[in-house]
Specification:
Shape: rod-shaped
Largest sheet: 3 strands, antiparallel
Order of helices and strands: EEEEEEEEEHEEHEEHH
Radius of gyration: 33 Å
Oligomer: single chain
Number of strands: 13
Strand content: 15-25%
Length: 209
Amino acid sequence: MEIFNYNEEGEYIPSVEPVMAKESPLEPGEYLIPRNATTIEPEYPLTDYANFFIDGEWVPILDNRGSYYNADGEVVEVTDINADVTDLFLFDPKSLDKAKALKTSEINAAFNDAVESFETSSEITMDAALAKIQLLKSGFDLAEALGAPGMSIRDFYNVTHAVSLDTLSQMLNELGMNYQANLEQKWNAQDAVALATTEEELEGIGFTV
C-alpha cells in the first residue's frame, strides 16, 4: 500500500520512489500507517501552490517562498509560505528599467527606418517621414490652388519626376497610410514595453519594418 508523507506543518514531502506502508506483523493484511502520512494521494498542485494535508484532505496553498528583489534591486529570500510579497519583485526592477529603455530605443530606430522611404504604387520611392509628407502636401495644395495640372517632385534618390495632381494625390494618400500604420505599430510596441514585467516578455516585443 502506497503512503504519502507530510511534515509537521502538513506540507507534502515528495518522493522520487513510491513509499510503501509495512504490513502489520500482528495483523496480516493490515498496514501500519506512520505518523504524518496518509494513503490519500495528493493531486498535482497548481503552479506556485504547495499541497498541505489539513483535516483529512489535501489543500493547495499559495506558496510565496523563494527569491525576490526589493525596489533597490537587492535579493530577498522569503522562507515563510504565507509571507506578504506585495512590495517585492520576481525580477530586478532596475535591470528591467534598463532593458525597457534599450527596447524603446530599438523600436524608435526601427520606426525611423520604416518611414525613411516608401515605394508608392506609381513606382516612385519617396521620403516617408512626416515632415517630408507635409512638405509634399503643401506643394500639392499650392499647385491645386494655381490650377496646375501637375507638378515636379524629387524622389528619395533625388531624381526629378513630373506627375499629375491625381497621381500626386494618390501618392500622398499612400504615404500617409504608410506613416500612420508604422506609427500605430510603434505605439503598440511602446505600450507593450511599458506593460512588460520580465525581460523575457521584452524579448518578444518587436517592430516589423
